[in-house]
Design brief:
By secondary structure, the protein is mostly helical. It has helices spanning 2-46, 53-89, 96-130, 136-163, 177-206, 211-235, 237-244, 255-284, 293-329. The protein starts with a helix and ends in a 7-residue tail after the last helix.
């Protein structure tokens, strides 16, 4: 009797959850027209000049200032300062993590400094032309735009460090130059869209806009992110599988590595679909997740890649130091 009750209880809970989800979905869908009208009203009320156009003007003016900052960054910081330090550290044939990682990390930090240079130039020009922002809604909007610009470029620098698409001698993953560049562009596009949609959701919620509109936009844009990720996986599956196999034949791999190289793409697609289904479910019920599941997965992946690289770097340095010590203790070894 108890097992039957448990199974029956589980079915009833699932049925109850489905009924609640269907009811909430119908209710929010029917209320969407009124919700959008409410959003328009609130945006006009919070705008300094009483128009929604003010927020669009803040966005495109920020982009214009950032474009000027990027030009200054490239012509002044990039060509006159950073290039001398970067080129001085470049070698033709670096070997292993111990020789590649220091340069990749150094170039990454030089790129991050370049981001701050562009943002500083944009801020100085904006402050000189427009003065300080007095309106709180405009201040918050400008802050979101600045954060989005920094995060998008920061992610691009991170993936550039991982893939090294333009310096093949420093590339650690076993990818051809064309494959690395294509994957880099895919990751930049997905990362940029994900950052923008999440920050847009924060902007909507913090301005006190209608939750139904927030939920609708988050469900729709997360579906776009899922489709972009699935397309990236399908387009880049072969080169990524070869990189996981490290160029070796599948039959020469151990069982774990062979399973990972075979199953990573289907498992990734399955995770994306499950994550979107779960996020859509909790958003419709009014309990948005505290951690974005897809962005969180990318954070975990990047963390694993960085930790893996650091561990291999120290292992290679340790072996190199041990060999140097043996050579010092036994000078005759170097003559063999």
């Amino acid at each position: 009797a108890p097992p039957v009750e448990t199974e029956s209880s589980g079915i009833m809970k699932a049925q109850d959850a489905a009924v609640r989800f269907r009811g909430a979905l119908v209710e929010r869908s029917l209320d969407l027209p009124n919700a959008f009208n409410e959003v328009i009203y609130i945006l006009r009320a919070t705008s300094a000049d009483g128009t929604i156009w003010m927020f669009f003007r803040a966005f495109y003016m920020s982009m214009l200032l950032f474009a000027i900052g990027m030009v200054v960054e490239k012509l002044v910081y990039g060509r006159r300062i950073a290039i001398h330090y970067v080129v001085a550290r470049t070698v033709d044939n670096p070997q292993g993590y111990s020789e590649k990682m220091p340069f990749l990390v150094f170039r990454f930090f030089m790129g991050v400094i370049g981001i701050f240079v562009a943002m500083t130039v944009a801020y100085v020009i904006g402050f000189t032309v427009y003065g300080p922002l007095e309106d709180t809604a405009l201040q918050f909007t400008a802050g979101i735009i600045n954060l989005g610009y920094f995060l998008c470029r920061f992610l691009a620098q991170l993936w550039r460090m991982v893939l090294s698409p333009y310096l093949p001698q420093y590339r650690i993953p076993l990818l051809e130059t064309g494959e690395a560049r294509r994957l880099h562009l895919w990751l930049i596009a997905i990362g940029t869209f994900e950052v923008c949609r999440l920050l847009f959701g924060i902007w909507i919620s913090e301005l006190g806009l209608n939750y139904d509109v927030f939920a609708f936009l988050m469900v729709a844009t997360s579906f776009v992110v899922v489709m972009m990720n699935i397309a990236m996986i399908l387009v880049n599956r072969k080169p990524l599988t070869r990189a996981i196999q490290n160029g070796r034949a599948p039959e020469t791999l151990n069982m774990g590595a062979r399973l990972v190289s075979i199953a990573w793409a289907p498992l990734a697609i399955f995770y994306l679909l499950v994550a979107w289904t779960y996020v859509s479910y909790v958003l419709v019920l009014g309990t948005p997740p505290k951690i974005p599941l897809i962005a969180g997965a990318y954070v975990i992946l990047l963390s694993i890649l960085v930790v893996f690289g650091v561990i291999n770097f120290f292992i290679e340095r340790s072996f190199a130091r041990a060999r140097a010590m043996r050579a010092m203790n036994d000078p005759g070894t170097g003559d063999d």
